[in-house]
Amino acid sequence: MNAVITADIVNSTLMNxxxxxxLVNDLLSLFKEDKIEFxxxxxxxxxxxxxxxALLKCIKSRLLAMQYSEKKRIxxxxxxxxxxxxxxxxxxxxxxxxxxxxxxRYFDKFQRSSRKLFINCGDGGKDFTYEIIAQYMDxxxxxxxxxxxxxxxxxxxxxxxxxxxxxxxxxTATISQHVKAARFEExxxxxxxxKILTNQLQ
Length: 202
Prior knowledge:
By secondary structure, the protein is α+β, with helices and mostly antiparallel strands. It has helices at 17-30, 54-66, 98-109, 124-142, 146-155, 161-168, 172-181, 184-199, and strands at 2-10, 35-39, 43-48, 75-83, 117-120. 50% of the residues lie in helices and 16% in strands. The longest helix has 19 residues, at 124-142.
């Protein structure tokens, strides 16, 4: 089962060129195991081979962007479509596979929404659950601070709270406070539910 992300960087025009270039490089690094292509400057699509990891990568990309916030919050708006590719992918930009088209159209549909995360697979019953997961996850991420984003980025990269404390030069108590304030247990629970639901599509 594959996944396609269609996304754009929110408030990218408020970033200076050097910071924007660094964010793009960080995103390229995050999706280094996937196929990613930028277009129109701050928009991009990603083909993820294993759909189970797709929501985690969406979250990590948003947490990454948040860390670049200054006067205005930097974030990423994402549409995640799940399904099976019916063709080989050489060039993402010109690919007309149903999965790419569905992701792009779903993204365009919600361009003016205040929400920043949308998930679909084309199965009405499962899409209803995906929508609940997306809305809940979005509400959690909207409240996250820059410091919490830094901590969660490390924790979601399979690092312990002790390791996070060393990397950020703070106490483990401080890390624990950030993890709790960011409601990490709820984020983790939603990631698990996403994987269970996605496995049912196999």
